[in-house]
Write a structure and sequence with these properties.
The complex is a heterodimer of chains A (about 50) and B (about 190).
Chain A (H helix, E strand, L loop, with lengths): L2 H16 L3 H24 L7
Helix pairs in contact in A: 1-2
Chain B lengths: L2 H32 L6 H23 L3 H25 L9 E2 L2 E2 H19 L4 H4 L8 H29 L12 H4 L2
Antiparallel strand pairs in B: 1-2
The chains are: A mainly alpha (about 50), B mainly alpha (about 190).
């Protein structure tokens, strides 16, 4: 799944929305943050073996 | 200093913050396009985090300063720092590292430095309570409105450029750990 591409698109949508609707933009940004966190966890663990 | 002048100064500050972040991403594009250094997944995530810091500044620019807007930028800065630290820890024992260096430090190390500076900077500027009570001027200056729009459009353009670059590099599947060519360009 192109996680990074989807995350970029979410941030693009949130930024574009920010100019027109504050609350919707913040909502989109929170979705983006959650999604990006999952993408980061995937790349920091699955793909690049992390041992804690 | 009267309210209108103070409002103008704060608006200018928000615009400069956005332009500063777009300049950092432009520097990354310079290395990608002219030094043939394709960004790895963690590098792309660091760009994403840096651009996310600008989101709070956009809200400040458009709707006036609010602690919640700074809070979103702070969250994004911590996120960016965590990604950069992960990449630093990957290469900390590697004498070569990943990618080229700028003033002796790799770019992921610089991103970590920038993230820490952003956290300290936002914590400092958000503590100035005057910005939260300033009324917007009855007749906003057209130059200031134009400047705000330019800063916003720059950010949107650089975000779009990152979407295009990621699509060319990775296509519609997961990005490779060590990219060597643009997947979509090599198809042509």
């Amino acid at each position: 799944m192109p996680g990074i591409l989807i995350a970029f698109c979410l941030l693009f949508a949130a930024t574009l929305t920010a100019w027109f609707h504050r609350r919707a933009a913040i909502g989109l940004f929170l979705v983006f943050m959650l999604f990006s966190l999952l993408v980061f966890l995937h790349h920091a663990s699955d793909s690049l073996a992390i041992h804690l | 200093m009267n309210d209108t002048r103070l409002y103008t100064l704060f608006t200018l500050k928000h615009g400069i913050e956005i332009i500063g972040i777009t300049l950092i991403i432009l520097a990354a594009f310079y290395y990608q396009l002219f030094q043939d250094e394709l960004p790895c997944p963690l590098c792309l995530l660091q760009r994403l985090g840096l651009l996310a810091i600008a989101f709070g500044f956009v809200l400040n620019l458009r709707y006036g300063a609010h602690p919640a807007h700074y809070g979103l930028s702070l969250v994004a800065a911590v996120f960016t720092g965590a990604i950069a630290l992960r990449q630093v820890s990957l290469h900390v024992n590697d004498p070569v590292g990943f990618g080229s260096t700028v003033f002796g430090l790799h770019m992921y190390t610089w991103v970590f430095v920038v993230a820490v500076i952003a956290i300290l900077y936002i914590a400092l500027v958000m503590s100035d309570a005057r910005q939260y009570t300033l009324p917007p001027p009855s007749q906003p200056s057209p130059t200031l409105k134009r400047f705000s729009l330019i800063a916003f459009v720059l950010l949107v353009l650089i975000l779009f450029a990152n979407i295009a670059s990621t699509l060319l590099e990775c296509g519609l599947v997961e990005c490779p750990d060590n990219p060597e060519h643009y997947r979509w360009l090599s198809r042509l």
